[in-house]
Amino acid sequence: MAFSNAALLMMDFQQDVVAMLAAGGSGAAVERARAAIDGARAHGLPVIFVRVAFRDGYPEVAGRNKRMSMLRDKGLLRESSPGARIAPELGPRPDDPIVVKRRVSALAHTDLPTLLMANAVDTLVLAGLATSGVVLSTVRQAADADYRLVVLEDACADADVEVHRVLMSKVLPTQASVMTVQAFLRELAA
Predict the structure, then answer these.
(1) pTM value?
(2) Which of 99, 115, 118, 190 is most deeply buried (CB count within 10 A of its CB)?
């Protein structure tokens, strides 16, 4: 696979999310995401960080939105909170774009499509937390927008390990190439 017009998206690797998904393997996913970042940078691929964050008081959260209401009720992912920060192991460089989102998909109501268009990106390499959240939603929306997609299966994690396995083996391959970080790094070097 050619990666000449690709960007690496690091999605929702935030302190609160890493903590929430610890039992699902988020720590290992962060380690492999770090390797993907290093490889992407070594080969000139842009790295874009995406994070979910809400204003104080959660004005973006409707009571009928089950997932977002849960975050609000737990006081998680407020823009001003340390838990909304990107995991320090992955800390973006000053020139790495950081996209802030208020919904699950990285493409929903964000400036990510503008960044991708401005940089002629047609291939997205995705890593993120959680597989059943941002990864699945972004794959679905990006596939509908005709992006070529790669999901780094071991740089993703979910609270439910079985859900992660099913998504990676049965659902996501219908719209994306699913590969390990090591396979991605080998293809970059080829």
Answers:
(1) 0.96
(2) 99
